Amino acid sequence: MIRCVQLLLTLGIVFGMSSEAFAADALTIRSQLSGGEYSVAYEEAKALETAEGYGLAAEALLSEVILGRAEKNKKQSKRARAYAEAALELDPTNQNARLQYAIADGFITRETGDVSAWLKKLPQKTYDIIQAYRSDYPEDPRGDALLGAWHLAIIRKTGSKDGQSWFDANIEDGRALFLKSRAREPNDLVIGVSYAFALIALKDKDLDNTEEARAILEHIIGLNPTDYLTAEILGYAREALLRLDDRDAARDYVGLFLDGEVPM
């Protein structure tokens, strides 16, 4: 595959093709992703057979998982991880592929049963993958958000005591990481909603109020979405805010989103 890409690049130089000819394809796919045309974007991205293309293919697959539109979340997340891995084999420095790999791995861990995940040490493996991304791209607030989500997701599943003793996860670190991420990108819809929903989803004994989540959502609903994904997530944020006076109803609603299902 690498030889094929090299041959295409060589032929491009010989016949006067510029690098923009390749970039235009990726730009078109980016536009499709922005418009929510995930199936089309996936097919065209993987057909590029480049690191950038495989990374975009993974992103298209994971966008569907995020919005609860994958037929099988775990299977699709594994496929996305495989494409991200293929991208990194071609170009180990491709940042988007690294990000998509971390996201996909987290979804796979989420979709694995608690006992099986514990026996296979999947949460620890996911932690290491996210931490490696943060180390290599310290300027990217999404790395901090991913690790913050890791902490809060484990506490949601296990509770504070077991989360701390089994995985060294805790609410304080999760909040600190999300706050660091939001300090850099206070108007990022995905980061903001992910944090607010993660807080709402916690059990009352772990977090007995929703004031921080409410403040975040009130800020978020005043923002403009930048693409199809953020427009959909903004709609979920509005609905969650309407339910927030009933913590159980709000928790059930955001829990569906956090579990890769369509909130209802």
TrEMBL record:
Residues 1-23 form the signal peptide. Keywords: Signal. InterPro entries: TPR-like_helical_dom_sf, TPR_rpt. This is Tetratricopeptide repeat protein.
